[in-house]
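Case study 2.
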Amino acid sequence: MLYIVLVLVLAALGLLVTALITASSLWAWVSIGLSVLAGLLLVADWLRRRRRSAAPSAPAAPAVSSPEPEPSEAPESSEAPEAPAEEEQTTLIPAAGDLGDPADTPDPEPAPEADASAEAETKPDSDPGVEETPEADVAVLADLEDEVVVVDEHPRYHLRTCPWLGTRDTIPIGVGEARQLGFTPCDRCHPDATLVAAHR
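Prediction:
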């Protein structure tokens, strides 16, 4: 069967070359037809071999296990080795804290203290409140191009002298543009009041 498929594929290749040389689509279609036929023969051969391999194994199973109790014992015996394998796998994985020398493992209690100190550090660093700005000042700020700074991932804009900024990386931006982008004024450095007072 494979020899027939090989001959069909070679014929399809020859007809494809002929189609390219003569610029005739008829030869190209014949080449495609031969390729499809070769593919169908391969699938048919695969199905035939699959049926042959499945057919002998099906009668052999009842012949070997003619008494009814033996087939039921066979699955139990196949399940029995699986359970110890799972138990062995779980016993191979040590419990937490069983790895290495106890002197090498750090105490777990300093980690929560570090977390508590990290939380204490982040609470003062949380975003400051929003400065209340009168409507008249908002109209003035919209036209201003004075520079304020923003911090990535934080919703407030600040003056460069704001104590909240500390050593954070800042991005300079015009106050009008900052308001258009949705940033709000910081409650600690009062950028709106400072800028409006400077322009009055």
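The chain has a mean pLDDT of 75.
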